[in-house]
Write a structure and sequence with these properties.
By secondary structure, the chain is an alpha+beta fold. Helix content is 38%, strand content 15%. A six-stranded antiparallel beta sheet has the order 1-2-3-6-5-4. The structure holds zinc ion (ZN) (2 copies).
């Protein structure tokens, strides 16, 4: 089996964690992980109890952004995002039940406390949640560009408060109807 990232070198047996064998590439340090072995490992090995690492040295990863072919069956592997904020995606071949982890991605999963939750990443629910987070983030970015960071922070604060209100529909209706009654605005952002 050849490395799907570097193409040339053969993958060799390696251990990515205690009792977790995989086929690794000596050049890019990516590895092909059998999800059958992985599920057994995740069931029998306890997840680390430590808190997620918030800071510390940034992890070096080599995320393959292009589509890659499964080293076993040559079919194009499906890509799954880990989270909304992280660009890395895991590549999976459902036919062979194998995942390709680019160099550093196993360590990244550990930092994100996802090393025991890989199957969850492949679910529709997980991917839908990430898309929702990304949409939210994009909308917030647009609002910030339009009304400035201070204004956007105020809106966020108000929205968070509104989220806890039982009577929010009354407040929203009031605001919506008030728009025509507010003093004329020249269209530029007003900070005062
Ligand atoms: Zn490689
Ligand atoms: Zn395959």
């Amino acid at each position: 089996m050849k490395c799907p990232h570097c193409k040339t070198p053969d993958l060799r047996p390696t251990m990515i964690d205690d009792f977790l064998p995989a086929m690794g590439c000596g050049i890019c340090h990516g590895c092909l992980l059998s999800l059958l072995y992985y599920r057994h490992w995740a069931e029998t090995q306890n997840a680390p109890a430590s808190e997620p690492r918030k800071s510390g040295p940034a992890l070096e990863t080599t995320d393959t952004t292009a589509a890659i072919a499964c080293p076993k069956c040559s079919r194009i592997m499906a890509k799954y995002k880990l989270s909304g904020r992280i660009a890395n995606r895991l590549d999976v071949c459902s036919t062979c039940d194998e995942a390709w982890l680019d160099g550093g991605e196993w360590e990244l999963l550990e930092v994100l406390q996802l090393s025991h939750k890989i199957p969850a990443i492949f679910t529709d629910a997980w991917q839908r949640r990430i898309r929702r987070e990304l949409t939210e983030e994009t909308r917030r970015d647009i609002l910030t560009r339009m009304i400035g960071a201070d204004g956007a922070a105020k809106v966020e604060e108000f929205r968070a408060w509104l989220g806890k209100c039982k009577d929010r529909s009354h407040i929203l209706t009031y605001l919506y109807r008030s728009e025509t009654a507010l003093p004329a605005c020249d269209g530029s952002s007003q900070n005062r």
